[in-house]
Amino acid sequence: MELSTLGEQKSLLRTLAPGKRARLHRLLFEFGPGNGSLLLLPIDQGIEHGPRDFFPNPASKDPEYQFRLAAEAGYSAIACQIGMATKYYGDYAGRVPLILKINGKTDIPNSDEAFSTLNASVEDAVRLGADAVGYTLYVGSPAQAADLLQLKEVRQDCDRYGMPLVIWAYPRGAALDKKGGQTTFYAIDYAARMAMEMGADIVKLNMPKIDPEKDGLTPAPYNEMDVTQEEAIRHCVESAGRALVVLSGGSRVDDDQLLGQTRMIMEAGGSGVIYGRNVWQREWNAAVDIIEQIKETVSSTVRRVP
Amino acid sequence: MELSTLGEQKSLLRTLAPGKRARLHRLLFEFGPGNGSLLLLPIDQGIEHGPRDFFPNPASKDPEYQFRLAAEAGYSAIACQIGMATKYYGDYAGRVPLILKINGKTDIPNSDEAFSTLNASVEDAVRLGADAVGYTLYVGSPAQAADLLQLKEVRQDCDRYGMPLVIWAYPRGAALDKKGGQTTFYAIDYAARMAMEMGADIVKLNMPKIDPEKDGLTPAPYNEMDVTQEEAIRHCVESAGRALVVLSGGSRVDDDQLLGQTRMIMEAGGSGVIYGRNVWQREWNAAVDIIEQIKETVSSTVRRVP
Amino acid sequence: MELSTLGEQKSLLRTLAPGKRARLHRLLFEFGPGNGSLLLLPIDQGIEHGPRDFFPNPASKDPEYQFRLAAEAGYSAIACQIGMATKYYGDYAGRVPLILKINGKTDIPNSDEAFSTLNASVEDAVRLGADAVGYTLYVGSPAQAADLLQLKEVRQDCDRYGMPLVIWAYPRGAALDKKGGQTTFYAIDYAARMAMEMGADIVKLNMPKIDPEKDGLTPAPYNEMDVTQEEAIRHCVESAGRALVVLSGGSRVDDDQLLGQTRMIMEAGGSGVIYGRNVWQREWNAAVDIIEQIKETVSSTVRRVP
Amino acid sequence: MELSTLGEQKSLLRTLAPGKRARLHRLLFEFGPGNGSLLLLPIDQGIEHGPRDFFPNPASKDPEYQFRLAAEAGYSAIACQIGMATKYYGDYAGRVPLILKINGKTDIPNSDEAFSTLNASVEDAVRLGADAVGYTLYVGSPAQAADLLQLKEVRQDCDRYGMPLVIWAYPRGAALDKKGGQTTFYAIDYAARMAMEMGADIVKLNMPKIDPEKDGLTPAPYNEMDVTQEEAIRHCVESAGRALVVLSGGSRVDDDQLLGQTRMIMEAGGSGVIYGRNVWQREWNAAVDIIEQIKETVSSTVRRVP
Amino acid sequence: MELSTLGEQKSLLRTLAPGKRARLHRLLFEFGPGNGSLLLLPIDQGIEHGPRDFFPNPASKDPEYQFRLAAEAGYSAIACQIGMATKYYGDYAGRVPLILKINGKTDIPNSDEAFSTLNASVEDAVRLGADAVGYTLYVGSPAQAADLLQLKEVRQDCDRYGMPLVIWAYPRGAALDKKGGQTTFYAIDYAARMAMEMGADIVKLNMPKIDPEKDGLTPAPYNEMDVTQEEAIRHCVESAGRALVVLSGGSRVDDDQLLGQTRMIMEAGGSGVIYGRNVWQREWNAAVDIIEQIKETVSSTVRRVP
């Protein structure tokens, strides 16, 4: 499978209006690993999964833990919901940028018709001094009509306020389950493109998984392609065009795997990583240690100029 | 199961905007047991269950009964719906704070897709001189999309008017029934976290029940944990972070049990109790008596500084 | 079954804002039987049932018939929908008060998910010089979420304009059918309470029917209670608290029964009756006759001071 | 079956606000057959049925055909949707009044839950110089809640702008199919009343069909009545009260039948006819001819004074 | 089957308000083949199908590819979604007109209830300097109620801003599948008419396919007609009235077929073609070549004066 001959994506920042550019500059150059790369700390698992993710490291149940980690170990930004931002961000304002996630849901009902409604607004983000908003889009869900319509309002508010828009682009829903599920290259690639076409400045993707059985259920030509995971990521990065791409780690893996995948993501054109449980499910010192290693890996392997 | 090593939650009041702080101060220090604790009287059973709860004490059918009890026996606040607040609160204004519950529903249809729409607004609460609004959130209901979206508007109005937000956080719905139901530690713990993340200042929870059979159906690690009820409450209190937690009594129990559970709640970090039927299903003198004992228990066992 | 020991409900009028009080005063004291009682003429059957109710007395198909009856025989008010109010009320303005019913539906689909959307607004009522608005609430319907939300807007507009709110509180829907149906004491009692809690100034109820078989399906303690119809009505009146209660006659019955039930309603604390078909399905003179008898009965048996 | 003894409906025009009266005057007296009668040309079949209705007379596919016919043969008004009004009415403005139909749908899905959403507004009608708006109401559809709510806004806008409201009142939907279907006297009579009660100034009905088998399925007393078609029409006219009634021709019939039914409609109290396919499915000269005959019939048999 | 005797459709431009006329003039005369014809480049496949359409020519995954093609090879306009317009159109502003497509969806769920919600607004189009907006209408979908209502707002905004409205009129949905599916002459003809009646200035249609088996399932008279594909197109053009019609190519075909169909479209009264994959799935030089041939064909065969 030949890749694009047009070379790297053109600069994102150059196309942005001043407000978006000023805010993204902080994430890309003033905090975290810098060099135009991103290291994001998500702490939305309390709503998306419930407190169960906190038990491996009880200290992590207290939101202070993640805020302190993000600020003291030097993340590019912390991403959380309105309740935590309101009650905890004040003490960390100026010490780490905030991405306000403005929609979410529990995982108690199944994901057949996945849809996350807004629980906060872009205006809330402006008021709290956030440098970006986060929106979860369930690409391909039977509820996509409501989702895309809701995203329209968010995107327009972002344009109005110069607020960067980070889209968590998740393939999801009953219809997708018949086409190989939510982890295939096909599904992630589609999600990357959708996010860009809907106006994302940064796209958050899950790692595409290469699995011949599932890939066989995807539409042509994906069902016949033979790509490595790194090639798959590279395709996804290209599908997102000028929007920057960050990839997540998912549930906890061992350190070598974590750093290895970080390197692969960056070499495939990713602009950074978003690591939550892999970091804050560790005790403080172990967490600080691994963050240091991730930052070094990210800043030494970043290839893309934003 | 080890608990958090970060110690007690930090102060809620310190993080609040002036309006919220002024209003909560009245509930926490000027009325009820004081000392930063809460004793709340709910009288929303007429809508949530119908008049059937009033038959054990016919006098309780007249809303005057609960308003008089709340004012004369010294509750921190009375919580009721718009119709009662409009027609009865006038005579008690200044004598007991009001929490206006602004959504609700009958229990005639089942709870498979539980959702309570608004029947009043935060502005109604402001107009009536209420010191907080109450909102029932059905955590995990298939209707959560509509619920969370509606709550967003309420939360934003609370921010706008400096009105404290009390969330009745109830796990509910068909999907939950397959995961152990609405009374497990898992379910209550999730509800506590959701309420905080959605912006609650006070979270109202039902008592988690320890039941190995039901707990076995909950997601890991809850299905393998071995906690006492008090530990479960403590976890829930921690999940709510800086938001204060009050627990309810449910249907009527005997006095020893009631006072015992009150003590347990307070020692687990609860900020108070919300007792309705356990109080107003008694004749006047018996009701006043038990309230006095509850208040003593609450104020002598409160550990958390709000 | 012992009834409340608190005695009669307190005055409604005393709690009302000036606009509501001025308007209700006209219905309670200046028109109809007076003495604080109500005789209401509903002419919404054309929409709720279709024209079939008019065939027993063909003259009744012409809305003039009901308007003339209401004005000339001296009703407290006539209740109708927007189309009739707009095209016919002009000739009767000042001669009989108007209650504008602002929602409704046909009975062509079944009532499993009963819900009546608005077809007029409180502002329409103000513009037409109405003295109250009428709203049909289907208590316990699976569509209650939409119904209660809609009622909220109506109630708030009533507060804004000083317009009395009359709630037609009808237990209805598939879920209720499993709990004894829509005519039980349980169902009507719940409806009475809901209407008051949602902000009704006047509650319109259907007659509770005592039927051991159906009552056996209702929740405790209703399923074990042994009450007469008059006691049941008295309970419902108490459940409505300060809101006034009027009861309807339903389909046509004989004169003795009609007057007997009128007396029973008034003695049980009802504030009046709302009789449509029982009156206008008669020829003019017969209608005027029976109205006279009803008015005498109502004004001679009214016990409640509004 | 005895008919009303109150005689003819009272004047509609006398009850109308000046704007409505001025506009209706043009339709009733200044264009078409005059004398207070109506001859309306509907050209909404392109959306309601698709272009298939145009094949019998290919010239009719061009909207010019209907506009020219309406203007040159002298209709009271032409009724069409926004797209045609915008692109074709300009050339005929002043030569024939316009009724802007503001909702509609295709007939591709079945009618089980029939509902036509708005595709234009009353303001559009004002801007285009229309003399009335047309709204299709599906009486008895399971979607009636949405329909009636939508009609409310339209009706209020009509009141605001002095715009006459013509309701196409069509019994429809799965529930009705079990009660004899959409063509029975019962169904049409109900529709006539609904339209008037919802605020129609003119009601457009389909011809009631007398069919003992279907009538047997309708509610009492319709299932036992023995009426002629003319009597049925007369009942429907009475059910519409002060609102004027026009009846449609439906698919094409022969000339004698067409003129015969026109006479019957007018003698039963109808205020006119609305004939589309019966007219424009003919070649130009034949169309002009039959229009002349219809106009003569209408103006010579009109009995009702509007 | 005889065609209309009224001859060609009258001028569209003459009926348009100045803003629409000024903008359409650019597309029809200043860019592309000129002479009042249209050659449009759609690049919405990334959202409607996902990136899979880009693999035949990897360079096409980069939106630069289509923008450069459109500008340098001389299209009348490029049609894309908000994300691409925002991030890529800036470099091509003034070099090729923009049609902002303002709704869309993925093809992951099936099309049984097809509906595309808005992801951008007419105001977005104005702000970006677009010369038209594109809207996808699923004619006959069970979701048509929501679709037509949404289109109303778009159409009104287009009127407000003088923005031409291009409707992608696609027959779709479960109900249609029983009537021969989405490619029959019946279905496309209906779609053409709907688009015009809903206010389209330009209608984008897919090619009707003549297939006796499917045509046999369509309503009369379509099921009995014997038309060539060119006659079918001509009918569709007439059904769209004064609105201009462009047809699409669909998936890739060989060059002779492509040019042949282009000629047929233009001779049947089409105002142009909209070719995406048939063009940009080729390498740069091959793409430029075929565009040149298409433009020559279009401008040499255009018959209709807009």
Residue share in β-strands of chain A: 5-15%
DSSP strand count of chain A: 8
Low-confidence segments of chain A, given as residue ranges, are 1-7
SSE pattern of chain A, N- to C-terminal: HEHHEHEHEHEHHEHHEHEHH
> What is the alpha-carbon Rg of chain A in Å?
18 Å
Oligomer state equals homopentamer
For the biggest β-sheet of chain A, the strand order reads 1-2-3-4-5-6-7-8
With helices defined by DSSP (H or I, 4 residues minimum), what is the helix count of chain A?
13
Distance between the termini of chain A: 26 Å
Portion in helices of chain A: 40-55%
Tell me the major beta sheet of chain A: 8 strands, parallel, barrel
Mean pLDDT reading of chain A: 95
What does the model show?
The structure is a homopentamer of 306-residue chains. Helix content of chain A is 41%, strand content 13%. The first copy, chain A, has 306 residues and is α/β, with parallel strands linked by helices. The first copy, chain A, has an eight-stranded parallel barrel with strand order 1-2-3-4-5-6-7-8, surrounded by seven helices. The radius of gyration of chain A is 18 Å and the shape is globular. The A-B interface holds A 44, 46-47, 50-52, 55, 58-59, 61-65, 81-84, 86-88, 90, 104-106, 108-110, 115-121, 124, 143, 146 and B 1-6, 9-10, 12, 15, 139-142, 144-146, 148-149, 151-152, 155-156, 159, 171, 173, 175-176, 179, 186, 189-190, 192-200, 219-222, 235, 238-239, 241-243.
